[in-house]
Each structure stands twice: as structure tokens, then as C-alpha cells.
Amino acid sequence: MCIFLPVFFLLYYMAGPRRKNFVLLIGSLCFYIPAVWEYPWQLTLLLASLVTDFYLGLWIYRKPRSKNLLFAAGLLLHLAVLGGCKYALGILPLGLSFYTFQGISYLADVRRRKVYPEEDLVAFSAYYLCFALITSGPITRYEQIRAQLHKRPALSGALGKGLETFVIGLGLKVLLANHVSRIWTGTAGIGYESVSTALAWMAAYAYSFRILFDFAGYSMMAIGIGRMLGLPIPQNFDRPYLSKTMTVFWRRWHMTLGAWFRDYVYIPLGGSRKGAFRTILNLAVVWLLTGIWHGSTLNFLLWGGLLFAVIFLEKFLYGRFLERSHVLGHLYMLLLIPLSWSVFAITDLTELELFFTRLFPFFGMGPESPFPGDWMKYLNLYGLWLGLCALFVTPLPKWIYDRLPRILKVPVLLAILGLSLYSLYLGAGDPFLYSTF
Amino acid sequence: MTQRHHNRKNPYRESNRLLVSIYLLLGTVAILLPFLPGKAAQFWTDPAGFITGAGQPAPEEEELTPRELADRMLAEAAAQEAADGAEDTSDVQGTEPAGTSSLTPGDAEGQAAAGDPATEGAGEISPEQAADPAQAGTGEDTLRTPDDPIAPEPDPEPLSMANTLFIGDSRTVGLFEYGGLTETDFFCETGLSVHNIYKKELSVAGSEKMTLEQLLELHDEVPYSKIYIMIGINELGTKNLEGNIEAYEALVKDLTERQFGAEIFVQANLHVTKARSDRDRNINNEKIDLYNEMIEEMAIGYDLHYLDVNPVFDDGEGNLSTTYTGGDDAHLRAKYYEQWVQWIIEQTAEILNVPLPESAPEDAQTP
């Protein structure tokens, strides 16, 4: 990576306007190919998907009478591949969930006349294969970057801003997420039956921090690279843990996924405009699909269902009340966030049940932890990181950073970069959490 | 949309076609790659080897120095002998409770109350006898058969885990935290190895932090009766197994000299799961086994006891079974540490020829 990025950017910046897409295309292939070296068929799948979407897009546009048939064919192909690989075969080709959704959004937008199809396969490939997007998103729609794909804005300040975002994202992921994740993995390693209630809760919060900073950090890295490329990759996170309801949470967490489900599933099904019963049904569909998009094991279905139940209650019962509250909404989310992530995190249902008996030891189930000081040990080891994570959930660090004079920002960024690289060197590197989706 | 768009030719037609052909080529090659035979395939799977003319893709084994190779062969031969000899003694473990049947619970209580645990290990059984190398060369508990008339009378005092020291790395930390041994001292830490053990300052039984030297000094007058050591997994990253075993020997020598009369039990390193073993070049079961063999040989050389708990938790193929792990590929789930401790107690009791402690659940004698 350390060799790839500088070489790539050198070539990219030297290239003329049209060549930039070509360099991006080649660069993205150079990224993807080694990544799937053990399973080269994944490359074939990606290329086939790319070419299919490209020509389908053009045909849908040029043969308006067959557009529904063509769109349906494309949609079915995508879903068959995604479903087949992920759920039937249990294999997940790199980036499949993301480029499938991007592809479907492209075909849908072309069919709806929201955007002209791309005629230049080089440009389309640059978008489709873009190494910043392909691993774990953000799910970027073609119409969002179309203009810049054809004509880049002046890139003079882009490198600086982009690097800034990239480095901060890297720090979030490598420094915060990787370290605090050890609380969770340590707890899982001990076995939930032997873990004290305090440690179980600590682990649940640790996982919540981990998944936030891992994914938000990665998204920032992608956005930063996008900036450096001159492509406006959309925001994916907006301080989600400051939300007061689960409904709002999902408009601030993995925003591009939420928007995708809203625009391509919820609204086409009628959204909330067809009466209460239909709204509920549409919500259920969206949330169950969200659950299974994240994983093929039962716990994800349970998780999706849980989110649906919560959002349903918020929508029809107490949502507005929470939104208007000052503290209650936050307390409510302070409980719901780690609990919902626990269901998400544990794939075995027996283990999940075990974990919940540790979180809520009111029913006399499960033994006492043989090591009552276990949470203290973890607090000693990782308390600092937990504290830092809690701090970075708030807007305070950004507030401070924005007010720094430029001269001070550079050493801060360098420090983050240096620490991150050092941390990676020490072997704390984890695969991107969301790339398993 | 205008009529123009429908009829106008795609200006990118040429480049599109070119690119599609390139994709077709790439895609086909990618699909066919796994099926290419021989040298051509090697170009793709091991380009470095192909380019450097190394020929066959290098096997995943570490390079052995001649000394290591010789040691390995010796160890394999010894293990082969032991395997032949251990078959008859495997019954011993099964009938072990019978060996204590002569003792009634009343006796045990009476004696345990008066007994000083420190002398129990230094009793009738000397370390030399207990680890007789003439018997099957493994040093495992193959020392006594129920019918052996020369075996000394069992020491009536039951085994106690007080005045005992455990030294080790994260696995021993697990024994400490979840094993249920409340009277035992532990000098252990995650990451501990033979190379850093003397530099570590650790708290033992709630004390202030101290080094191993200081700990041993504290127990100079009244040495530990038993010392258990399990180290090795953390230094597997350093390629030089010989350097590791040398440091281990130095440690063991130091302990035998400074803790006179202590029974020293050297434990084989626990395996890791198959998944971990398959993907880790350094910490894999092949290397662990090799190192364990060297440790065993060293133990024989110094007349120490050697314990190998791996058969208890293995999956039948030489890997740590995932039944016993909770997602951590190198450590047991906490609840199994008690089982491990119980096994250690049983093994120790057998080796030292003493009855099991009163409270052992396996002791069928207690009503």
C-alpha cells in the first residue's frame, strides 16, 4: 500500500483530464487483483458485472419500450449473484455487496431518467472499480459523481484536504477502533459464561465504539481519497451516537446504505404514503433486507427485526417525545446502541443468549464469574482507549481541531499518521470490519 | 431526450470495444488460473519463486540448523520409543483412583491437618526416582505401575497446591484467573518468554511488583515444593529455536539451583487451533510440537517432570479443538481452565505418588 498510493497519485496528477479516468481504472485493478489473488474468479465476476451494467444502461436508455424488461433482467442478475454467493454458497467476493448495490442504483436511475447512461466505458469503469469505493463503500451513486467523472474540478487544494480527511480516518480506525476491539475479542475468547456482568457491558460498549470508528474511519479514508481524486464521495456518518432515536440514528449511520434502501426499496414500495398498514409493511421489508444485507446468519435477521420493532414503536408511539427531550433520548440510545450491536456481533444464537444473561443477570441464570476482577483488568489495559473513544463520539475534538491555526494542524496530522503507522507495524492491523459484508 | 441521442453513434465506441476485449482477456485468464498445470501455474501462485528460479514453491516449514535437525530426529526416535512404552502405561491413568483406595478419608484429614506441605514433595520420592529416564524416555507419568513391588509406599499426605509456583505466559494467566487455585503463587504475564522473564516485574499473590529473582529470594529459606513452567509460545516468532531452548535451559538451571528440593514440572506448550496454525508462519502446531520436543528432551536431561496437556484439548489432528475455545484461536475458554488444573493435580499426584487432595471431585472415596 505504501508503494502503491504514492506511485498511483503521481501518475494520476500527471495525467491529462481524460487519462485520469484511465489511470484510476488501472490503479483500481492493480488494487483489486492482488487482493483477490487466491480467488481470481472474483475478478471475473466484477468485470462481468461491470460490463453487463454498462451495456444494460445504454440499452435501457436507447430502447425505452424494453426498459422494464432490461431493468428487471439486470436487477435479477445482480440479486441472484449476491444471493447465490453470499447466502447459498457462503462466499463473499470482495466488494460484492457494494458494487452490486451501486450497479442496481445505476440501472434504476437510468430507467427513471434520473441520469443519462455513461457512454465511456473507461469513465464507467473508473467509477465502478474505484479502489476507494469497492471494498466497503460508501455506496456512491453514479449521478453523484458523474459531472466530476467527466471534468475534474481544479485539484489545487484537493490534495491537502483529502490527505487531512484520510489521515484522520486512518487514526480513528487504527488507533481507536483496533485497540478498543480487544476488549470485545478478549471477552469472546474468555467465553461469555465466565464473564462478569460489568465486563459484558464494557465489551458491548467497546464493540459499539469499535464498529463506529472502524467503519466511519474507513469511510473518511475513502472520502479523503475521493477528494484527492477530485470525486465527491458522499458522507457516510454524521455523529450517529449523538442521535436521540433509532430512527434518526439510521439516518446518520451508514448514510449511503440508508439512503439506498429509502430510494430504491422504501419509496418505490410506496413509503409512508399508502396508509399506516402499508407503511408498517414497507418498513418491515426494508429492515429485514437491511438485516440480511449485513449477514447470512440468523442473528442478523433477528437484528433487523429488532431494529424494525424499535423504529415502529418510535414512529407510532414515543419517537417525537424522545426527539424533543434533552436527556431522555440520549439515555435511551445509550442503552439501545450497545444492546442492538450485541445482537449484531454474536452470530451463534446460544452464545447470544448466554451473553444476554450476563448483561441482565436478574433471572439467576448463569454462574458468577470465577474471576470477579476481570473488568478491572480490562479497564486497566484499555481504559484509556475507552475514554478516548467516548471523547471522540462527541463533537469536542473536531471543534478543537477546527479552531487550530493551520500551522498546528500539520504536526497533529503527522502525529496521528505516525502513531497509526507504528500501531500497524506492531501488528494491531485488523481487516476492515465492513468488508465482510 | 432528443432524437439526436438515439441515432448518434457512441463516440467512445472504439475504446469501449478495446476495453471490453481487455476485460474479457483478464476475466478468462482469472477463471482459468487455477487449472493451469505445472510451471505456468507456479508463475502465478509464486511469482517471486518463479523469478528467482527457486523452482518449486517453497514449503512452509522453517529452516532447521543441523543441530535442530539432529535434535528433531533424536526427539522423534524418543517419541517413538515412548509411544511403544506408553501404550501399556495408558491404563495406569485410568486406574489411578485405585492407587489411593487404601487411604480412608479419615486418615487423609488427620494427616493433612498436621502435614507441612513443604516437606511432602521432598519426601520418600526423590526427583531422580520420580523422573527415571530409564523408563520410557518421555518423562511423562509412566513411572509407576500398580503392580510394581519396588514402588515406595504412597505418602499419606494428600497433594496440596499451596507453596507452589506457576510460571508462564498468557495461558498461565488463564490458569491464574480461572483455574481456581487460590493458594498457589503465579508469576505470569501475557507476552512472557524465556528472553524477557528476568526483566519482568510482576505482582505475585497480591504483592508489590517484583522480579523473578526477588521472588525466588523471598522463598530462599522455604523453597517452593512444586514449580510449574509453561513458556514458549511467544518466542516462536524468533526463528532460532536453539537460542530459545538455551535460554529455557538457563532458567531451569537457575530454578533447580535456587529452589532446592522443589519438584519442577515443565509443561508442553498448548496447541493453537487449526485455523491459526494454517495461517501463521511462526505460531503453528508443527513448530509448537518441535519446540515441545526440545523442551521435553531438556526436561529429561535435567531430571524434571514433563506434562503435556494437549491430548486433553486436541481435536484428534494435533490442533487445539475449537470446542474448547471461544473465538480466540490460542486460548481456552475460561471454564476449561478448571479442567486443566484438575488434570495437572491428577498428573502431579500420580507422578509424586501422593493421594489426591480431599476436595477433588474425582476422588470417589469421599462420600
How does this structure look, described?
The complex is a heterodimer of chains A (437) and B (367). Chain A is 74% helix and 0% strand. Chain A is globular, with a radius of gyration of 23 Å. The two termini of chain A are 22 Å apart. Chain B is α/β, with parallel strands linked by helices and 367 residues long. In chain B, 45% of the residues lie in helices and 7% in strands. Chain B has 16 helices and seven strands. In chain B, the strands form two sheets. Chain B has a five-stranded parallel sheet, sandwiched between helices. Chain B has a two-stranded antiparallel ribbon with strand order 3-4. In chain B, α5 packs across α14. Chain B is elongated and about 100 Å long. The C terminus of chain B is likely disordered. The interface between A and B is medium-sized, with 33 and 31 residues.
Cα radius of gyration of chain B in angstroms? 28 Å
Question: Averaged pLDDT of chain A, please?
Answer: 91
Mean pLDDT of chain B: 75
- Main β-sheet of chain A: number of strands, strand sense, barrel status? none
Low-confidence stretches of chain A: 428-437
Low-confidence stretches of chain B: 53-62, 87-141, 360-367
How many individual helices of chain A? 19
| N- to C-terminal distance of chain A | 22 Å
Instruction: Specify the helix fraction band of chain B.
Output: 40-55%
Concise summary:
With 437 residues, chain A is mainly alpha-helical. Chain A has helices at 4-14, 17-35, 41-62, 67-88, 96-111, 121-129, 131-134, 142-150, 158-190, 197-229, 246-252, 255-266, 275-294, 298-324, 328-345, 349-359, 374-393, 396-402, 406-428.
